[in-house]
């Protein structure tokens, strides 16, 4: 599974959220390729799951992509609860 973490610029918050996603996956005992990028690049990049703040990832929602909206990007518990059903 490939998880693409998205933010506006693809540097700060998506990097930090990618680290949290990796920790959440480790706690779940799941493996996935986790990368991060900016919104513009994400529109052309294929992934199984797109994750980020709602105002950002909602722009990627074309009805075909799996979108995960995160409120607290540092919350391992929130990320675990939203990713676990996808495995």
The helix/strand class is alpha/beta
Helix count, per DSSP? 4
Sheet-strand content, in percent, reads 15-25%
Let me know the largest β-sheet: 4 strands, parallel
Which geometry do the CA atoms define?
A: globular
Helix content: 25-40%
Order of helices and strands: EHEHEHEH
| Poorly predicted tracts of residues | none
Rg, Å, rounded: 11 Å
**How many β-strands, per DSSP?**
4
Terminus-to-terminus distance:
9 Å
Strand line-up across the major sheet: 2-1-3-4
The averaged pLDDT comes out at 94
Briefly, what is this?
This protein has 87 residues and is of the alpha/beta class. Helix content is 38%, strand content 24%. Helix 1 packs across helix 4.
Account of the protein in words:
The chain has helices spanning 12-28, 39-42, 54-57, 76-83, and strands at residues 2-7, 33-38, 49-53, 67-70. The protein has a four-stranded parallel β-sheet with strand order 2-1-3-4. Helices cover 38% and strands 24% of the residues. The termini are close together. The radius of gyration is 11 Å and the shape is globular. The model has no long low-confidence stretch (mean pLDDT 94). It has four helices and four strands.
How would you describe this structure in keywords?
38% helix, 4-stranded parallel sheet, alpha/beta, single chain, 4 strands, 4 helices, 87 residues
Sequence-ordered SSE layout with sheet pairings:
Layout: E1 2-7, H1 12-28, E2 33-38, H2 39-42, E3 49-53, H3 54-57, E4 67-70, H4 76-83
Parallel strand pairs: 1-2, 1-3, 3-4
Helix pairs in contact: 1-4
